[in-house]
Amino acid sequence: MNNFDYQKAATVSDVVGKSTFVAGGTNLIDLLKYNLTNAATLIDINTIGEHHDILEIEDGVRLGALATNADTAYHPIIEQRYPLLSRAILAGASAQIRNMATNGGNLLQRTRCYYFYDPHAPCNKRLPGSGCSAINGYNRNMAILGTSENCIAVFPSDMSIALSALDAIINIKSEDGERSVDFADFHRLPGDTPPIDNNLKPGEFITSIDLPLKGFAKNYSYLKLRDRASYAFALVSVATGLELDGDTIRDVRITLGGVSHKPWRVKDAEHYLIGKKADRENFSAAADIILQGAVGFAHNTFKIKLAKKAIVRNCMMALDPSTQLPGAQPSA
Amino acid sequence: METESFTKTHQATTVTPRTITLSINGQQHALTILPYVSLLDALREYLDLTGTKKGCDHGQCGACTVICDGKRIISCLTLAVMKEGAKITTIEGINHPIQQAFIDHDAFQCGYCTPGQICSAIGLLEEGKVKSREEVKDSMSGNLCRCGANQQIIDAIMQVKGGDNE
């Protein structure tokens, strides 16, 4: 860890056009310890007077970028109207980390690929052109969808899997003004630029995340499958929101986590399901569409079958959300 | 442009230590430190409050858990300079029924994780969000116990929390 200077920001205009902001610090300070990020000056954005709240807005709900993950997950509006988001947040990290980590930071967290963290291993994300150690290395946790010959790392956020399913919008400020980005267009596939995780440009600052009105509060489920029941990153996770008319699907959202460099959502599968009966057979056919093009590596081919089964199971649980067990989710 | 920070090692600029005041266990402590000192290192190395333990130093074990403004946090992944004005409670400042419950249930062996477990348990009790034993286990998953006293730790928490031990 190299030394750095430190400043506290008072307003958003203190930070736009600059870089290396710290909020919760739960990923950034770890990256600094591993020398994976270097900052001449670290700017503390916790001291900014706004963007800490969860607010009702005309077309939905606005999540302040500086609200913590815990405060967001337990906020009455989120628990009641967006329980899918609440579930997904609470499936991630530990209680301590959720008390520190912020919503903006959650979207910007970096992969936990072990080769990315190992300074002695080639890694195109850490050192472009050095090669990918995961492709022919131990790749149990790695991606099966949207990979490139340069990188098979996975984006580890749980919160983002629900935000993808909810069609969230990310509000961004820069010296040039403000812009909003659809969640689907924020995170990137590795392609030939693995170091770039998302489309936030240098000098830009996430101020908030908007949730549209439709929250799927009646029929939703988040399923996270992992090597231990709690405090581990997903092997596969699934967020499902359903809108039903009797047993006919009127609207549906399905996003997969733990399988790609970005939240994996295939709208063709959702279109396929609309108007059909909400049953295993149709969910299974949709799962086949979602996993089209999936390619496994030596140790993670199991994820393809696991993801298909997880999608079906999670969609069935969404029919009756009370079937989701509290706390640790069973793995069977 | 975007890849620059990964290919180039910045020469750290000369940074001078600064004097900050931390509120710990109800006492104000002035200390002169560099910005990159974690809260954990500030407690242990600068203030001699060694009850808070360093396990992994990467947010994976929970041994460094302290209570900050009423919430349990890990002190290894925050900087001391970020906690000016916050009210921090460490194991040295705790007097809570959970401590007797840990003794009653033999909720430790070597004791290294215990300060973090106690702070985390108090955070859990004050948050009041979890009810069942399964939920308590999930909520304590950020604190590892390598001796394997987890069942007794959960027993101790359930006793203080009250309610159904299912």
CATH class of the domain at 219-319 in chain A: Alpha Beta
Largest interface chains and counts: A-B, 46 and 48 residues
Helix content of chain A: 25-40%
Poorly predicted residue ranges of chain B: 1-11
Secondary-structure element order of chain B, N to C: HEEHEEEHHHH
Category by helix and strand content of chain B:
alpha+beta
How would a crystallographer describe the biggest sheet of chain B? 5 strands, mixed
Structural class of chain A: alpha+beta
Mean pLDDT across residues of chain B: 92
- What value does the Rg of chain B take, in angstroms? 18 Å
CATH architecture of the largest domain in chain B: Roll
User: Can you list the strand order of the major beta sheet of chain A?
Assistant: 4-5-8-6-7
- Which runs of chain A of at least 5 residues are low in confidence (pLDDT < 50)? 327-332
Q: How many strand elements of chain B?
A: 5
What is the N-to-C order of secondary-structure elements of chain A (H for helix, E for strand)? EEHEEEHHHHHHHEEEEEEEHHH
InterPro entries (chain B): 2Fe-2S-bd, 2Fe-2S-bd_dom_sf, 2Fe-2S_ferredoxin-like_sf, 2Fe-2S_ferredoxin-type, 2Fe2S_fd_BS, Aldehyde_Oxdr_Iron-Sulfur, Beta-grasp_dom_sf
GO molecular function (chain B): 2 iron, 2 sulfur cluster binding; metal ion binding; oxidoreductase activity, acting on the aldehyde or oxo group of donors
Keywords (chain B): 2Fe-2S, Iron, Iron-sulfur, Metal-binding, Oxidoreductase
Protein name (chain B): (2Fe-2S)-binding protein
